[in-house]
Amino acid sequence: MTYQIAKTVTSILSGAVVLIVYLFHVSSRYQAGLLAMDDLKSWAAVMLIFIGIGIAVAIVIQIIFHILFSIGMAVSQSIKNGNCNDQAIEKNIEMEMVEDEMGKLIELKSMRVSSITAGVGFVASLVLLFLDYPAFIALNVLFVSFFTGGILDGFSQLYYYLRGV
Amino acid sequence: MGKKFEITNNIRRLRFFADEMTQQQLAEKAGVSRQTIIAIEGGKYSPSLELAFRIAHAFGVQISDVFDYRVAEK
């Protein structure tokens, strides 16, 4: 597994974990009566907290991933060559992390997927408001569509890396 | 009747004749990631003209020795 694929998989996982935790947290609080339908301020507070959590989780997972990836590379090199050269490992990691033309093209193409998902979510939330659904549902559709867009971005990156551009 | 365009490459063969050069070594010489070399070698990505020249330069051959452009009738 190359660096790019492993990194994409970890970003998908971190996004999915945050989204699942959010949905679980919100549904349990709503059922317990701690979040009222018309209390948009509380909904906004929960969403802001989860945006912060999402960023923090993404950073922590990326740090852990880079540490594990470096360890994995050191182990594979020591198995292959019989010794563990720090400079060679650093050079290999640098080479793996190179962002080249294919990476940029894939990033652009997958960004289109996330933009479309977020756009569809925005339109869906407007339609829900137009159809007299409560505002918190529209807000949640918007929030979930942004997070789902991020996850789909990862999946499309994975698709392009595996199937080609 | 339509025409089908196809770009093929000889990277695997050239790596073999370059003392079994690894994909990592080629990536290093061409200044791209190993993932990109894997994709080009597998015909899943057509590189830019600049990268094609860099790959040819890494092997010390002409660009036409690395890449082949074919037009096939459908």
Explain this structure to me?
The complex is a heterodimer of chains A (about 160) and B (about 70). With about 160 residues, chain A is mainly alpha-helical. Helices cover about 85% and strands about 0% of the residues of chain A. Chain A has five helices and no strands. Chain A has helices at about 5-30, 40-80, 85-95, 100-130, 135-165. In chain A, α2 (about 40-80) crosses α3 (about 85-95). The radius of gyration of chain A is 20 Å and the shape is elongated. Chain A starts with a helix and ends with a helix. The model of chain A has no long low-confidence stretch (mean pLDDT about 90). The radius of gyration of chain B is 13 Å and the shape is globular. In chain B, strands 1-2 form a two-stranded antiparallel sheet. Chain B is α+β, with helices and mostly antiparallel strands. Chain B is built from five helices and two strands. Classes of the chains: A mainly alpha (about 160), B alpha+beta (about 70). Chains A and B meet through α1, α3 and α4 of A and α2 and α3 of B.
